[in-house]
Amino acid sequence: MDSMGGMMTMAPGVPSLFYMQQIFWAFVGTAIGVATIANILNRILYHQRISSSRNVSGAAKPRSFFFQAHATTSAIIREFSYYSKPLSFRNRHFYLPPVGPVMMMVGYVVLIVVCVFYRLDPKDFLQWEDIGYRSGFIAVCQMPLIVLLAGKRNIIGFFTGVGYERLAWLHRWVARALLFTVFIHMGFWFSEWAKYDYVGVKVKTDALTQRGIAAGSVLLWLVLSSVAPIRKLSYEFFIVQHIISWLGFFTALYFHVPEENRIWIWLPLGFWAFDRFIRAVYLIYANLSVLHKNSTGFLSCRATFEPLDESHTRITITNPPITWTAGQHLFLACHPLAPLSSHPFTIASLPEDGKLEFVVRAKNGATRRFFKYAEKAYSGLPTATGRRSTGRSVLIDGPYATIRPLRQFDSLVFIAGSTGATFTMPLMRDIVQEWKGTKPTTSSRLPGLSTPAGAVTRHIRFVWVVKRKAAIEWFASQLDQVVRDVEGLRNEGHDIAVDISIYITCDDALTSGQSSIMDGAPRDTNKQNGSSDSSPEEKKALTKNIEETLSRVSSSSTKDCCCTRLITDENAITPPCDCVSRRQHQQQESASTTSSFGKPKRVADTRINLLSGRPHVSNIIRKTAEVALGEMAVVVCGPPGLVQCARNAVVAISDDRAVHKGTGAQGIYVHAEAFGYA
């Protein structure tokens, strides 16, 4: 380098440093371009299916050669990319990412290694300096990608149709790949200096080296503090320190890199500022009451906090100033209750409800403070008659997230664990609204691609796993409305169906993510269900027995009843899990599940299956796939064990049915949402 700023002269036949940066971004840009093309094809397919659904039966089944090839290619990629290897060690379960994202990151690391060592020999001592320069240039040119993947209003997500919450995983791993590149950069420089016993002198006297070590140290801290176990210790603290550390890293990096390379510093700073500006505009619009007609006061949103049980809070914002779609979430902040914190919550309602509604599990930090406030505001649990609070002013940021429109699929399977129903419930209700024809026509940002109302979907399978029967009341009215709406539509001659099953169990693998679902096979054949040939009278009597038993245990501790047996046939007779006898005289009838005459009150419509046990995820998906007339989708939201089980079940079913071999069996799309911060 000339005065550490000019361009270093490389050996004959070795590409220049700037040229290798261009090669790196050529590959990255190509990958983003391919994802963008795939997103456009999916949008065209969605438009085509909805447009033809009124005239063609089984519109979700590809007919043209092009879309048949597209479906086959998609099936091959899904079978490969969805699978995740279950691992366990000493009763601890580890949830690896699916193969698809893992291979994407492997390819990214290979790209870095090739760009660093292309036409350079790491065994040749005389080329160590060249490798040190090259790796430093490749490291700094990764900065725009890291910042682009981190933005909430994400440019890459806009083009590829992938939400920021999914790109956050790539953001963290690209940052780790950057650290790997920095280690190569430092390693070859230090190895060269060590040949002459010059490391100590450079570290003590050379300002450029000192700034480089400072930047590398801060980057190491950023990566280590972003590891999930550390990040989750205090998410509020993590966010604050992460931003401060990031600014410190950029400052040290700015003074370390040569002037010609500082474009890679200004670009990500510009992307970051643009993202913050756009978010600020949305934030101001959503929260200032002067911008909305029916709002009073300074802030436009007031939220009420209602305790649902001993660990869940319902937060409701009436007449919200924003609109959203099913499956989205927003960040909610209530600084008087939880200062300087903002948490993402899934929106459990539809715009047609006229309110934003969230069901939040009280853990630590802000969610625990919300629950404590709700208890005080309501002077007790949900059945209390104390005076209700008028609510607190809150700030909202969003909505965020994106999901492929589900009404383009022939059949849908929704699987949720506990509060995961806040994600799947509005998605199911949204399809029912499409069936009823009460939803407005959706518009597209692309001219000529406005999608008409309606849905290709014929069949919905909804599965919800809860620890206690009392949890059903969170969405009892919505479930009952879905059942009534579908019955009315069927009476009018519509060929649609919704099957709803609620599994009551205290198996943490399905609700809170404390253990794993390692497979879909029964653990003990002696715990299998009874024969499905039982008479209707026997089933009715046993169903009543199950309901009475669940009513008795619903108000006791969740440890009183652990219905962890696997239910492989929902039509079979299943004896109830009556665990109350283990603790005599402890049960107390809950007011929410018992009528004034002391008789158990059913909290859900009689057409909704209430089952005492855990679902056989693979069987549920397979039975739906066998009757699907076109491509189907599986939407799962819950702890990592449940998500992994659903993904692997789809891979096995798709492979068994040879979807990728042209057998005529249709593909299965999976959208998975796991508990935890993005």
UniProtKB/TrEMBL annotation:
Q: Where are the transmembrane segments?
A: 23-45, 94-119, 131-152, 173-191, 211-230, 237-257
Q: Where in the cell is it found?
A: Cell membrane
By its UniProt entry, which CDD domains does this protein fall under? Answer: NOX_Duox_like_FAD_NADP (cd06186)
Which superkingdom is the protein from? Eukaryota
| GO CC annotation terms, alphabetical | plasma membrane
GO biological process assignments: copper ion import; intracellular iron ion homeostasis; iron ion transport
User: Quick one: where is this thing mainly located?
Assistant: membrane
Q: Domain named FAD-binding FR-type: which ranges?
A: 295-406
Q: Which InterPro entries match?
A: FAD-bd_8 (IPR013112), FAD-bd_FR_type (IPR017927), Fe3_Rdtase_TM_dom (IPR013130), Fe_red_NAD-bd_6 (IPR013121), Ferric/Cupric_Reductase (IPR051410), FNR_nucleotide-bd (IPR039261), Riboflavin_synthase-like_b-brl (IPR017938)
Q: Which SUPFAM superfamilies match?
A: Ferredoxin reductase-like, C-terminal NADP-linked domain, Riboflavin synthase domain-like
Q: How does it sit in the membrane?
A: Multi-pass membrane protein
Q: Where is this region: Disordered?
A: 514-543
Catalytic activity annotated for this protein? 2 a Fe(II)-siderophore + NADP(+) + H(+) = 2 a Fe(III)-siderophore + NADPH
GO molecular function ontology, one term from the record: ferric-chelate reductase (NADPH) activity
Which keywords label this protein? Cell membrane, Electron transport, Glycoprotein, Ion transport, Membrane, Oxidoreductase, Transmembrane, Transmembrane helix, Transport
User: E.C. number, please?
Assistant: 1.16.1.9
Name the enzyme's class. oxidoreductase
By sequence similarity, the record places it as follows: Belongs to the ferric reductase (FRE) family.
Q: What is this protein called?
A: ferric-chelate reductase (NADPH)
